[in-house]
């Protein structure tokens, strides 16, 4: 029986060692949370890094890691510390990530990072080939694996290969600065179908292909001498029912079963007439505009002092890539900003910002989504932004206001949100004020439309659409051969 091979940098589970024992936790991040349900419900195997380096993994635990992964229909690959440094912390997160998010000043071009990236991509390709059987479909994910499609194609010319990019694809003028731009594009063109979140990213990619490689591009197809490659946009959805159900359970929860976090959130809202909570959730990443958001919130408190003691920003930042210097600097900057603003505005009974720097269990995420009156998401660039969609899906009574950066992929589907430019603090402050004052009927009207759309195009539909389109490319290839 044929299967789908999903492959991404990390597995949806993260394995670590605590006191000589294996500890398995779910991975945090958009790709893992989004694809998990597709993997759980379908006939697929998922290949990726376990989170452990070869040096950390004692020989007596190797079989146990393999088994733990197998229990979840996963295959774990292990890398050395040096490989992770060059491939993951190096080329993936100091070259591609900043470049594709237009942070050109952060890009580093180290040739040993690039060499390691190539070597590790080959390891992923080898792991696919080892598990691949004729008729299987291969679905490769994200910017860490841009070379894998062609590496697989070279060994399995007839394979059906799809690739989905979870981050933006930058404009040609930005992409062309990459020293290994031809290799990257050729690597991707090993796929039959290349997917992006938005039409803009698709357009940027096609323009780079035609201008750098000089391939002919017709609408959304690239003509290679031996075959066609289809490029299309598939805006990723969320597991809508999961969030809707969790929000329902949240409201049915009896008082004794409430989490401490929930009690604190309720305490604030009941503390003063008209008190409101603003929520933000992201990985601690410079692309997410966290420092901009805090500064805009400061500006809001100055411009609208009537909300002092009534409004609170609940800010959850999940630790991420803490070995990359820019992330360490950002952490310091945010710690200092939160401290400064809390020091500047706090009263004896109130602090303006509640800042959590940690990952939280799912039920606490739901507490936050369900209890906060406003979600304030201000990325400077973001491929999609699933948090925006999860917030709306968790609003059981359909109240709540989403303030969303227009630089996110999600903004293109969520016009009913208050869309802002993250660099315009005046606009953000006014949007917060507008959100606080928005009548409930208007909130409900906007969210009804959003919920309907998100429910219809959920993650299952997204994955099925991608796979359907991938199957079609293969059928077209076969019928062209027959002619
Ligand atoms: P991310 O940059 O990780 O994803 P995002 O899309 O917002 O960003 O997804 C974050 C996910 O992590 C959400 O599903 C959220 O529920 C979860 N999460 C956040 N904080 C958490 C916490 N404290 N504890 C547990 N879970 C938490 C990348 C791209 C995005 C793109 C996605 C999917 O950068 O642009 O939307 O992939 O393609």
TrEMBL record:
The chain holds residues 1 to 483 of 735 of the full protein. One of its GO terms (molecular function) is trehalose-phosphatase activity. GO terms for biological process: trehalose biosynthetic process. The lineage of its organism: Bacteria, Pseudomonadati, Bacteroidota, Flavobacteriia, Flavobacteriales. Pathway: Glycan biosynthesis; trehalose biosynthesis. Belongs to the glycosyltransferase 20 family. In the C-terminal section; belongs to the trehalose phosphatase family. It catalyses: D-glucose 6-phosphate + UDP-alpha-D-glucose = alpha,alpha-trehalose 6-phosphate + UDP + H(+). It comes from Gillisia mitskevichiae. Homotetramer. This is Alpha,alpha-trehalose-phosphate synthase. One of its GO terms (cellular component) is cytosol.
């Amino acid at each position: 029986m044929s299967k789908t091979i999903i492959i991404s940098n990390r597995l949806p589970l993260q394995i670590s060692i605590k006191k000589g024992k294996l500890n398995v936790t779910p991975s945090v991040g958009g790709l893992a949370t989004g694809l998990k349900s597709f993997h759980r419900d379908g006939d697929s195997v998922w290949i990726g890094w376990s989170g452990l380096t070869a040096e950390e993994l004692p020989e007596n635990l190797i079989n146990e890691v393999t088994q733990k992964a197998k229990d979840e229909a996963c295959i774990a690959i292990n890398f050395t510390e040096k490989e992770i440094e060059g491939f993951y912390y190096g080329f993936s997160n100091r070259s591609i990530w900043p470049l594709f998010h237009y942070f050109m000043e952060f890009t580093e071009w180290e040739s040993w990072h690039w060499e390691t990236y190539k070597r590790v991509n080959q390891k992923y390709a080898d792991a696919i080939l080892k598990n691949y059987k004729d008729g299987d479909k291969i679905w490769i994910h994200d910017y860490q694996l841009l070379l894998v499609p062609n590496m697989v194609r070279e060994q399995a010319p007839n394979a059906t290969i799809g690739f989905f990019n979870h981050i933006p694809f930058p404009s040609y003028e930005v992409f062309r600065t990459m020293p290994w731009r031809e290799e990257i594009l050729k690597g991707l063109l090993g796929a039959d179908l290349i997917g992006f979140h938005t039409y803009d990213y698709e357009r940027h990619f096609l323009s780079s292909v035609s201008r750098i490689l000089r391939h002919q591009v017709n609408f959304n197809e690239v003509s290679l001498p031996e075959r066609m490659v289809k490029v299309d946009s598939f805006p990723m959805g969320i597991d809508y029912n999961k969030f809707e159900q969790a929000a329902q359970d949240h409201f049915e929860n009896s008082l004794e079963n409430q989490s401490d976090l929930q009690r604190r959130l309720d305490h604030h809202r009941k503390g003063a007439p008209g008190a409101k909570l603003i929520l933000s959730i992201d990985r601690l990443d410079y692309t997410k505009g966290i420092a901009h958001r805090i500064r805009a919130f400061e500006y809001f408190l100055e411009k609208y002092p009537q909300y002092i003691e009534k409004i609170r920003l609940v800010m959850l930042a999940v630790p991420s890539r803490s070995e990359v210097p820019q992330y360490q600097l950002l952490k310091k900057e945010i710690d200092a900003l939160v401290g400064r603003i809390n020091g500047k505005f706090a009263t004896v009974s109130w602090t303006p910002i509640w800042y959590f720097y940690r990952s939280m269990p799912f039920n606490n995420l739901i507490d936050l989504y369900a209890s906060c009156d406003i979600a304030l998401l201000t990325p400077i660039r973001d491929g999609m932004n699933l948090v925006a969609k999860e917030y709306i899906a968790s609003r059981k009574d359909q109240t709540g206001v989403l303030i969303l950066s227009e630089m996110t992929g999600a903004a293109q589907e969520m016009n009913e949100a208050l869309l802002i430019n993250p660099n315009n603090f005046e606009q953000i402050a006014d949007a917060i004020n507008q959100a606080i004052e928005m009548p409930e009927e208007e909130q409900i009207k906007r969210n009804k439309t959003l919920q309907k759309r998100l429910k219809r195009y959920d993650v299952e539909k997204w994955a099925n659409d991608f796979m359907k389109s991938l199957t079609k490319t293969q059928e077209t290839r076969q019928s062209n051969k027959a002619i």
